[in-house]
Amino acid sequence: MRSVRILFVCLGNICRSPTAEAVVRTMAAHEAPELTLEVDSAGTAGYHVGEPPDPRMQAAAARRGYELGALRARMIESGDFERFDLILAMDRQNLTVLQRRASETSRERVRLFLEFAGLGEPHEVPDPYYGGPNGFEEVLDLIERAARGLLRDLRQRTRAA
Ligand code: 4NP
């Protein structure tokens, strides 16, 4: 069976989406080795293309065992909408950008990542870039929670297939 391809998308691809990529990759390796996943991340804006994740995000993630240092920011490109099975936005602003760019056939692949977290509204991972250090912990809390829900959902789908 071919792998499930998942793309995480935020604005700059240096805080939230690379963290989601690393958390899902790490968690899947430990907790769902039966799943074959390909995970990647991208930004809707190009301010930080080619850069590694924000050092504040890297440090907070490393304290929880997630290694972000090798990742580099890139922008979403049109081929992503065909290549990935799920394109998961961190907030509504990025969701809207993705929905506008998706074709009719790929639009249903575009969702909010926090739909998988099992929380009430709002379904958004807040942008931590201009906030204080607690913002990075909140990003990790929300992403870990949604990652667990996503893996649970994918396991069920795999079993049902
Ligand atoms: P991200 O955070 O979208 O989670 O990567 C941001 C990174 C950079 C900027 C905004 C948000 N920026 O304005 O440069």
Description:
With 161 residues, the protein is of the alpha/beta class. The chain has a single domain (4-160), classed as Response regulator (Rossmann fold). Helices cover 41% and strands 13% of the residues. It has five helices and four strands. It has helices at residues 16-31, 55-63, 80-83, 92-101, 134-160; strands at residues 4-10, 37-43, 86-89, 110-112. A four-stranded parallel β-sheet has the order 2-1-3-4. Helix 1 packs across helix 5 (134-160). The chain is globular. The N and C termini lie close together (10 Å). The structure holds 4-nitrophenyl phosphate.
What is the topology?
Elements: E1 4-10, H1 16-31, E2 37-43, H2 55-63, H3 80-83, E3 86-89, H4 92-101, E4 110-112, H5 134-160
Parallel strand pairs: 1-2, 1-3, 3-4
The structure holds 4-nitrophenyl phosphate.
Mean pLDDT: 96
* Shape annotation: globular
Please estimate the helix content.
40-55%
Adjacency order of strands in the biggest sheet = 2-1-3-4
Number of strands: 4
Q: Which architecture name does CATH use?
A: 3-Layer(aba) Sandwich
Order of helices and strands: EHEHHEHEH
Measured by DSSP, the beta-strand proportion falls in 5-15%
Please mark out the parts with pLDDT under 50 across 5 or more consecutive residues, or reply none.
Answer: none
Largest sheet: 4 strands, parallel
